[in-house]
Design brief:
seven-stranded mixed β-sheet, 16 strands, 23% strand, globular, binds zinc ion
Length: 438
């Protein structure tokens, strides 16, 4: 791994630490500790408490004084498209037109492995700059490009779950495959990368609109044959898309059923968007313990709609955050958190009033839960990997002013979501290795 060495000696990080080990929607809240000490050995947090107290227990440890600013858990992005880095920022189109005119022509270029390698490097750099240390990555339609993505993820040390994107209709011809080829190429990629270091495989049909029953059945076979693999796709993003899926499938109850009747919806399933669900679908997602990746800047940029978080909560559906680059407007989960807050506020009575702690939870622990990684990441408690983001704005910047005058930790965190950007994240660690340094 070239992302930075993990020191053999115990390191004692000193600073103000904020995280959400207990879900704020279920009685938890922000855990804020000023002048905390986190002892990190071989990449794992092995002791935590007030700095003086932890220092007293570990006089031999080397102190890393983070001084000003805040230390947060590494951010977790549950829906982000690797081939779309260069497509970010196209405005003024609804989903299906944006795919045809903007996203898919760019995705087709990844057939060229050199092009794919360059994009994979830009993509991982975008994640790291934004403080994202764990991601469920929507891959490419080309196996060589997915291979390049895995190699790049391994090189950076990021925790990445990704796989081959498959489709066999509707899209341009050069992005189509067959059920047999989809299985074989996916199986070969999984054999090469799944379970290697921090990498895992995700079975990834693009969406039901572009995948017939036989292709979805081959996805189900791959999911079953690759133990511990994940399933990800899109669901109920846009009204025109939902209607088109309804017309293409004979005998399916609805969009979600096109996946569910193949056995693709379960605890290791993450479905992006779900802006337009029925109550039946919400009840099924909850019963199957699947996760919805909420992607608020994408939903706003494409005019897809206002996410019904309250209905998801009432049905007990797991929800985490995704940037949905490149329909989303960048890699920042701080920006996604802020946009999620805006959307819920705009929904008035139908929305969920979100606190800063809720936003941090959605951007960290909720993502770790979605990806079955709560034993490793999601908060900065003892036993967790040291995946962390140090927020330290430039002296005199508006965020710096805000943090210096914050009433309390919740207020400071709200300012981070309102004002924070990549430039304010001066340190990012994954498994104890520093992968960003300003
Ligand atoms: Zn997407």
């Amino acid at each position: 791994m070239s992302g930075g060495a993990v020191s053999g000696v115990a390191l004692l990080y000193r600073g103000t630490v904020l995280d959400t080990p207990q879900c704020p929607f279920e009685g938890g809240g922000l855990r804020a500790e000023a002048d905390a000490g986190l002892l990190v050995e071989a990449g794992v947090i092995t002791d935590r408490g007030g700095f003086a107290e932890v220092r007293g227990r570990h006089a031999e440890a080397e102190v890393v004084d983070l001084g000003q600013g805040l230390l947060l858990p590494g951010l977790v992005d549950t829906h982000v498209h690797f081939p779309q880095v260069r497509a970010i920022g196209a405005l003024g189109m609804p989903l299906l037109r944006w795919l045809e005119q903007c996203a898919l022509p760019e995705e087709a270029r990844l057939a060229d492995v050199d092009y794919a390698r360059a994009v994979a490097a830009e993509f991982t750099s975008g994640l790291i700059e934004a403080g994202t240390t764990t991601a469920l990555v929507f891959g490419s339609h080309f196996a060589v490009a997915v291979d390049a993505m895995f190699a790049q993820a391994a090189d950076t040390g990021l925790r990445v779950t990704t796989g081959l994107v498959v489709s066999d209709r509707v899209l341009r011809d050069d992005l189509l495959t067959t059920p047999e080829r989809a299985y074989e190429e996916g199986r070969a990629l999984a054999e090469r990368w799944h379970g290697r270091g921090r990498l895992r495989y995700a079975v990834t049909p693009r969406f039901s609109l572009s995948c017939g029953d036989a292709l979805l059945a081959s996805c189900a076979a791959l999911l079953k044959d690759v133990g511990g693999s994940y399933f990800t796709s899109h669901l109920n993003e846009n009204v025109a898309e939902v209607l088109a899926v309804g017309e293409l499938f004979e005998g399916a109850i609805d969009y979600l059923d096109t996946y569910d009747r193949q056995g693709l919806v379960g605890r290791r399933s993450v479905l992006a968007h779900n802006v337009h669900p029925t109550d039946r679908q919400l009840a099924l997602l909850a019963a199957q313990d699947a996760t919805v990746a909420h992607c608020p800047t994408s939903n706003s940029a494409l005019g897809s709609g206002l996410f019904p978080l309250r209905r998801h909560r009432e049905h007990g559906v797991r929800v985490a955050l995704g940037s949905d680059v490149g329909a989303g407007t960048g890699f920042s989960l701080l920006k996604e958190g802020l946009q999620a807050y805006f959307v819920q506020h705009l929904l008035g009575e139908e929305g969920v009033p979100l606190s800063a702690a809720d936003l941090l939870y959605l951007a960290t622990a909720a993502g770790a839960e979605a990806l079955g990684l709560t034993a490793e990441v999601g908060d900065l408690g003892v036993g967790k990997q040291f995946d962390a983001v140090w927020v330290r704005p430039e002296t005199g910047s508006t965020l710096d002013v805000g943090l210096r005058h914050a009433r309390d930790a919740d207020d400071a965190l709200a300012k981070v979501f309102a004002l924070g950007c990549s430039a304010d994240l001066v340190g990012v660690w994954v498994g104890g290795a520093r992968i960003k340094q300003r």
